[in-house]
Amino acid sequence: MKKPFYRQFKPGRIFMGRLHYGDDLLESLVKFCEDKKIKCAALWLIGAVQNANLGYYGQKEKKYVSCASLNKKLEIAGCSGNVSRKDGKVSVHCHVVLADYTGRAYGGHLLSGTMVFAAEFCIRELKGRDLNRVEEKQTGLPLWG
Questions:
Q1: What does DSSP assign to residue 87?
Q2: Where are the domains of the chain?
Q3: SS3 for 33?
Q4: What is the pLDDT of residue 145?
Q5: Which stretches does DSSP call E strand in the chain?
Q6: Which pTM was predicted?
Q7: Domain 12-144, CATH 3.30.1330.80 — does that match?
Q8: How far apart are CA 105 and CA 22, in angstroms?
């Protein structure tokens, strides 16, 4: 068994806030992290969206594909992710679970094009060495390295 890749961090700043109605959820998180010069963080988010664009990583194809474009109002039942660097830029990686009014759930990788109805976030900055995403040959994923 191989040892896992890891870095140890110290807690940095903690941000709690909200995004605005009509904002692109993913792009707003990236912009916030750029503005606050956040290089590494863990994040959580709750709220609701007007529509959603979700992705799925095709393991055979070794690329992200759109798995659901949902043109309906949904609750954010859970959204968690992280912030690191990819190609020298902020990379926000989130997975989201959304629920409709019947309780049916949808989940996947958060993609651009998901529009905010209301969203409250918590971002916990982590201080230490940067985490940089690089392509891992076996999976094709941009993983920490």
A1: T
A2: 12-144
A3: helix
A4: 87
A5: 10-19, 41-49, 52-58, 63-70, 74-86, 89-99, 105-110, 116-127, 132-135, 142-144
A6: 0.94
A7: yes
A8: 22
